[in-house]
Amino acid sequence: MTKNDRNPKHLYSASGFSLIELMIALALGLVISGAIIQVMVSSRVTQGVNQAVTSVQENGRFIISRLRQEMLMAGRYDLLEPSLNKVVDVIEEASFVLNHPIILPGDFASMPQLGTIQGATGANDVLVIGLQGSTDCRGNRLGYDQGEEFYVINHYFVQSNTLRCRGFDGRVLRGKIASNNSVDNSAEIILDDVYSFQALYGITHNTLSGDNSGRPIRYVRADELAALLANGSQVVAIKFSLLLRGDGEIKLNTSKAYKLLNETPITPNGTGLFKPFETMVTLRNVKNTMRNRKL
Description:
alpha+beta; 4-stranded antiparallel sheet; Type IV pilus assembly protein PilW; N_methyl_site; transmembrane helix
């Protein structure tokens, strides 16, 4: 038996960490874990913000492009178009369409409530346009054959924070042809997360402007249009603005107010990333008609 074997302390000695070393290790582990968690949270927040920014930009570009394309055609009526369905007096219809690019309440006796409306303070506006086309804003032919063109009425409005559209046959609304009861006039959603839709209308009057350029001399609200149109003015441009919300559940301060056109500032409810979009559309068909008038 060796000397070490006879020493009982040798039997129980072992290397290891002291209590202080364990406490230091735990503290360092907590610091590192906290840093990792913070990085993960920050990364998730950044990802959410990026998703919201990307979605709101894409939605803004989409809706501005689509509405511009459709509103450019307001007031269009081409008597020489071979695809124009001529079951009605197209000469009389052309005059009506060219003089009613923007539909106002009362323009159609069969549906007097249908028309462009100025929303109350902070409320959404309603826009209704008329044009010659082969489909309405939903892509429906409303009972006409493929490629046939007719008098289309497109109705744009916001409901439950969604921009919607429905289409009508203007000939039916004017009582020129019988109603097709199989035609669906229900609204379809164009875009979600729309928190405000506002519009102004550029009017011209050849006598007041002093020329036949058809340029807008001022922009007015929808509730001013009836009196101005009755006095010989005409709508040749539309300004419209939308307030959109980006996708994602990011928690951003929504106390910011957004001013759209001539409306009072709007503070949207809820959380998320909001962004306004605005553009102006010249109604080239009406503008060309006004240029040819010698008032």
